[in-house]
């Protein structure tokens, strides 16, 4: 998930440098959403991932 966010961030930077402001805006919004979702998943898995097995 974070890899996709980084990919969209790179697309946004390149599109912004080329003057494609619409594409850059959309790509940066997608990158931001994927980053937040990936961060939430990472926190949830960090909190819930290390529980001892219940018998």
TrEMBL record:
UniProt keyword annotation of Heme present: no
Bilayer topology: Single-pass membrane protein
InterPro entries per UniProt: DUF1328
Domain of life where this protein originates: Bacteria
Keyword Transmembrane helix tagged: yes
Keywords attached to this entry: Cell membrane, Membrane, Transmembrane, Transmembrane helix
Coarse class of the protein's main subcellular location: membrane
GO cellular component, as recorded: plasma membrane
Residues that span the membrane, as ranges: 29-49
Localization, UniProt: Cell membrane
NCBIfam families per UniProt: PRK13682.1-4
UniProt family annotation: Belongs to the UPF0391 family.
HAMAP family for the chain: UPF0391
This protein's name: UPF0391 membrane protein ThidrDRAFT_2450
């Amino acid at each position: 998930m974070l890899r996709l966010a980084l990919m969209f961030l790179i697309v946004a930077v390149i599109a912004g440098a080329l003057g494609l402001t619409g594409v850059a805006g959309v790509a940066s919004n997608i990158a931001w959403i994927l980053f937040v979702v990936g961060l939430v998943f990472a926190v949830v898995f960090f909190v819930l991932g290390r529980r001892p097995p219940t018998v």
